[in-house]
Design a protein that fits this description.
Largest sheet of chain B: none
Number of strands of chain B: 0
Shape of chain B: globular
Helix content of chain A: 25-40%
Largest interface: A-B, 70 and 67 residues
Radius of gyration of chain A: 26 Å
Order of helices and strands of chain B: HHHHHHHHHHHHHHHH
Helix content of chain B: over 70%
CATH topology of the largest domain in chain A: OB fold (Dihydrolipoamide Acetyltransferase, E2P)
Oligomer: heterodimer
Structural class of chain A: alpha/beta
Shape of chain A: elongated
Number of helices of chain B: 16
Strand content of chain A: 15-25%
């Protein structure tokens, strides 16, 4: 591969990754991969990749112009040692684009439970933020908030009977009884690689009509349930409505 | 008999292709439908985890390669050698603190350290820079403080990283011949391109060259980064974390498990404190500390990138020495602060 051909592919790939990230940013899918607080960093990446692509394309033009100027004299100088870097570099850079384009994008769901774990009641995030959760209206609290409260407060009876309204995806598990299911969310600190699932039990008469991994809005009152010998929050549902996948499918602690 | 003779007239490839085709159709139709759901699920985990680490790492790799490009055009050769002491201990200590000047994480530090070696940085200083910079830099210190507060965990993380980096740097100073440790610079493409730096270049020209070097190194290092992420995502797709988490929580096992997790998760040092926070409570203080100290030095993707800079045996030591020291300090703090 000549150096100029290498440069051409390099420019195209830089542009490709840049456009891919722009696409993900515009359709709001960046939060399927990273915690929203890192989005500014990705924006920097997009701008910088565009700048690099521009620099590489300018370099190609420049080398072509110089070659024309040199045409006619000192041929054997300069271009007989025209080694480009390994073309494997280019192929490997293509991999993320292929994975991003060919595999249909979908946020993590219950299929990830088998490897990434799933958690209904064990200690999660060391929360000195309990106070903050107390300050939020009970109907504003997320699945994560409820689980934290049940883990860090000694007296859980104070929560029983409170109104709850949470969004998550449906997960059936045999630890629960009939008419019960989990409403689950992934918690992502940094990127999807560190994501793990948390879940809250829901009791609802029509639970059997729900589909695994479908997103629902659950409204009801808080009760508690024993899961592996520890108390965990459960919602006794008054209504369970199907909802579209939320803009931010993960919770960011 | 008849068929046997007539098949002789058919090209072998055709028979083989038909046989494989039939076999494929039969096996697909006999596969339980659950297999495809399973496969779809695994593919989703794989692609989401892969792209997660990739999207997270790209800006940091860009910053690291940019730093390398700027060093190339703005620092004269051998200038590093004049700034940094030749005495091993002094060199290792000053190398460890260079992260405060070049705030890079473990993806960015590799191209930068390679460039600095090229500029005459002593081996011991480079090694301690490589290992310490992902922790001893303002960004990571702030993010660790944000997660754990200005307390014990932060100071121990910084202190231990510094100690391990300096000790490893000093050990490497035994080797006097850098060529025995470093791989020959394969594609420092500036040799062949229009990017040679000349001292009379204008500022704009220098920036242009720095950007070209950045682009080249982004590809060169990106290759190892991506192969590392592929490996990490594959492991995360098939190895349940619960296997690690349920093995045990004894003072020794918990440290080993957190060290394993640090390698497996391959998350950037600028954010790993928030991830570590999630393990507090489940895991002992010492084991979380060892995760925070060892993770930035060694994980799947950084090892693959190290192989681009160093020969194999040195990479083994760069992994093994911090591993042993992180393990020991994790054990120590498990007993001191149970």
């Amino acid at each position: 591969m000549t150096h100029r051909l290498y440069r051409s592919f390099q420019g195209l790939l830089l542009l490709g990754i840049c456009v891919f990230l722009v696409f993900k940013a515009v359709n709001g899918q960046l939060t399927w991969y990273i915690n929203s607080r890192f989005i500014p960093l990705t924006i920097f990446g997009i701008i910088f990749l565009a700048l690099l692509a521009q620099t590489v394309f300018t370099e190609i033009k420049r080398s072509r112009r110089e070659e024309q100027e040199h045409a006619g004299h000192d041929h054997e100088h300069d271009h007989d040692h025209d080694h480009a870097p390994a073309s494997l570099n280019l192929w490997v850079m293509l991999v993320p684009l292929l994975i991003g384009v060919l595999i249909p994008a979908r946020p993590l769901d219950s299929s990830a439970f088998s490897t990434k774990g799933f958690n209904a009641n064990s200690p999660l995030i060391s929360a000195d933020s309990s106070q903050q959760i107390f300050a939020t209206e009970s109907e504003e609290r997320t699945v994560l908030d409820w689980i934290k409260l049940f883990n860090y407060e000694d007296d859980i009876t104070q929560f029983i009977g409170q109104k709850a309204s949470v969004i998550g995806f449906v997960y059936f598990d045999e630890v629960l009884g009939e008419n019960q299911f989990f409403v689950s969310r992934f918690v992502v600190s940094c990127c999807s690689a560190d994501g793990f699932a948390i879940a809250m039990a829901v009791e609802w008469d029509d639970a059997a009509t729900l589909e695994q991994d479908s997103w629902v809005l659950v409204k009801g009152t808080i009760d508690s349930i024993q899961l592996s010998d520890r108390p965990a929050p459960m919602i006794v549902a008054e209504s369970v409505q199907p909802v579209p996948v939320p803009e931010q499918p993960y919770l960011f602690p | 008999m008849e068929t046997a003779t007539s098949s002789k007239h058919l090209p072998r490839n055709l028979i083989l292709a038909t046989a494989i085709g039939i076999l494929l159709i039969v096996s697909i139709s006999m596969t339980p439908a659950g297999f495809f759901t399973w496969l779809g699920g695994r593919l989703n985990v794989f692609s989401t985890v892969f792209l997660g680490i990739f999207v997270e790492a790209v800006p940091y790799l860009l910053l690291g390669t940019l730093a390398s490009g700027l060093v190339e055009v703005f620092l004269d050769r051998d200038q590093m050698g004049r700034w940094i002491s030749k005495r091993p201990v002094a060199a290792a200590v000053s190398g460890a603190f260079m992260g405060m000047v070049f705030p890079v994480c473990e993806c960015g530090v590799v191209p930068l350290v390679r460039r600095l070696f090229h500029k005459g940085l002593p081996l011991s200083a480079g090694i301690s820079f490589l290992l310490a910079a992902p922790v001893l830099n303002p960004i990571v210190i702030l993010s660790t403080a944000a997660a754990f507060g200005w307390g014990q965990m932060l100071f121990l993380r910084v202190g231990l990283s510094l100690a391990i980096a300096v000790v490893t740097g000093i050990i490497f100073s035994v080797e006097k011949e850098a060529g025995n440790v470093l791989r020959p610079a394969l594609t420092l493409s500036i040799e062949h391109d229009h990017a040679q730096t000349e001292s009379n270049d204008s500022f704009v020209e220098k920036i242009r060259k720095a950007l070209l070097i950045t682009a080249d190194e982004f590809f060169e290092m990106g290759r190892y980064l991506i192969m590392g992420i592929l490996l990490a995502a594959t492991l995360q797709t098939f190895i349940p974390q619960s296997v690690l988490l349920t093995i045990g929580s004894g003072p020794v096992l918990s440290v080993l498990i957190m060290l394993g997790l640090a390698i497996l998760l391959s998350i950037c040092s600028t954010v790993d404190a928030f991830v570590a926070l999630g393990f507090v409570g489940t895991f002992s203080f010492g084991s979380v500390l060892s995760f925070l100290v060892f993770g930035p030095m060694v994980d799947i993707k950084s090892v693959l990138m190290y192989l681009q800079v160093f020969k194999r045996r040195p990479v083994f030591y760069i992994v093994a020495i911090p591993f042993m020291m992180s393990l020991l300090s994790g054990l120590l703090f498990n007993y001191l602060l149970p």
